[in-house]
Amino acid sequence: MKMGPSQRIPSSPCTNCGKEEDGASCVGDAEEDALPNPGDFCICIECGHAMVYGDGLVKRDPTAAEVQIMAADPRILAIQRARGYVMKDKAKWREIARGNIERNLAQCVEEDGADAVFDSAYTLAVDALIDAGCAPDLAREIAKEEAQVFAQP
Ligand SMILES: [Zn+2]
Question: Which helix (H) or strand (E) holds 141?
């Protein structure tokens, strides 16, 4: 069983946590194009909620019958396991970003204005994450979230 490449899909929110996702990766035995179809199952990477793609790939909660099918599908377990690794990685990157922003923030505040603080802390954190081996897309996402926490007045 392997994970396919990430694909862009129309954005729709998780029915549990509300996180908007516009990407999907398939899990299966065959080489697949990874593009989901209505009726396919999906797992929210953020909270692990199991859902089904409906019309236009808008995510919906599964019916009772679909829940039973999911429970017997080894791919769902594999996705949950993969999600565990991703979230563990994310926690590690988040820690690096937070430490970096904390270290640089005092210096930024003295040298620049409030807006520049966010930009400087964000840019430095992205660099630190990429240096540590984080994928650039994920580095930008995590650095932005962490810098916003510190930019709160
Ligand atoms: Zn979710």
Answer: helix 136-151
Total number of domains in the chain: 2
* Domain edge (last residue) among 23, 43, 72: 72
Residue 83 tokens read as 């999600």
The verdict on residue 101 lying in a domain is yes
Distance 22 CA to ligand 1 centre (A): 13
Residue 18's pLDDT is 95
Structural tokens at position 113: 């204005």
Residue 96 belongs to what domain range? Answer: 90-151
Confirm whether pTM is higher than 0.70: no
Centroid of ligand 1 to alpha carbon of 108 (angstroms): 35
Read off the pLDDT of residues 17-31 as tens digits, 9 standing for 90 and up: 999 988 888 777 665
Residue 15: alpha-carbon gap to chain centroid: 16
